[in-house]
Design brief:
28% of the residues lie in helices and 24% in strands. By secondary structure, the protein is an alpha+beta fold. The longest helix is centred in the middle third of the chain and has 23 residues. Pfam families: Extensin-like_C.
Length: 203
C-alpha cells in the first residue's frame, strides 16, 4: 500500500516549460491537447503562460467556456486536466445521473481550480497541484429537478446518492492521476480532489 497521499501535492510534477511570458501551446503535446478539446466539441480560451510567483504557474492552460454542462468556479486549468474533466463530465457524470436518478445533471459545482497554496492550505509542506492549475475540487451536482447531490452529506447519504458518487469516484480514478474522496481524510469531507499528477493514486 502506498504511504499516505504523497502524490497529491506534486511530488511528481509533470515536466513543463518554466519560461513564462512566452506563447502557450507551442509544444506538440499541448497542441494535440487543444486539438482534442476542439474535436470533443468543448469551447475554451487558451491562456498565456503565467508565472504567478511563489512557485505558482499556469502553463499551457485554458479557460473552459462550455463542456456541455454548466460548471461553477472554473479558473485556469492545464489542458490535460481540462480534457479529462470534460470527458469525465460527459462520459461518467451524465450517464450516472440517468442511471441512478433517471434525470440529467444540469450543473456541476466545484470549489475551483487554480490556487497558489500548499497542500491542505498549510503554511508549510509541498506545493499543491492547484498552484499549477493542475487540479479541480468537485463539490457536487445539481439535478434537473433541482435536487443537489453534494459530497458533503451525499457520500454517506441515501443509497442512490452513495452509489452515484462512488460510481463517479471510480470513473475519475481511471481518468486522473490522483483522486481523493471523503474517505481519504477530513480535509476532503466535502469534495473530490482530482489532478493530473501521480499515477493512479485513488483514495
Amino acid at each position: 500500500m502506498k504511504q499516505g497521499g504523497g502524490k497529491h501535492a506534486g511530488a511528481s510534477t509533470p515536466q513543463r516549460p518554466q519560461v513564462t511570458g512566452t506563447p502557450s501551446f507551442t509544444s506538440p503535446e499541448a497542441r494535440q491537447c487543444a486539438f482534442d478539446l476542439k474535436q470533443a466539441g468543448v469551447r475554451f480560451t487558451p491562456l498565456p503562460n503565467t508565472d504567478h510567483g511563489g512557485g505558482c504557474s499556469s502553463i499551457d492552460s485554458v479557460k473552459l467556456l462550455d463542456i456541455g454542462t454548466p460548471v461553477t468556479n472554473l479558473g485556469p486549468m492545464t489542458c490535460p486536466l481540462a480534457r479529462n474533466f470534460a470527458a469525465w463530465a460527459h462520459y461518467a457524470v451524465k450517464p450516472a445521473a440517468r442511471q441512478f436518478f433517471g434525470q440529467d445533471v444540469v450543473k456541476i459545482e466545484t470549489y475551483g481550480t487554480y490556487s497558489c497554496r500548499n497542500i491542505y492550505g498549510g503554511r508549510s509542506g509541498r506545493i499543491s497541484q492547484h498552484a499549477y492549475s493542475n487540479a479541480i475540487d468537485v463539490a457536487g451536482f445539481v439535478l434537473a429537478d433541482g435536487r443537489r447531490i453534494m459530497l458533503d452529506g451525499g457520500w454517506n447519504g441515501d443509497r442512490a446518492s452513495r452509489d452515484f458518487l462512488r460510481a463517479l469516484h471510480k470513473s475519475a480514478c481511471r481518468r486522473f492521476g490522483t483522486v481523493l474522496s471523503p474517505d481519504y481524510n477530513a480535509a476532503h469531507y466535502n469534495h473530490f480532489h482530482m489532478d493530473m499528477s501521480g499515477n493512479g493514486y485513488c483514495r
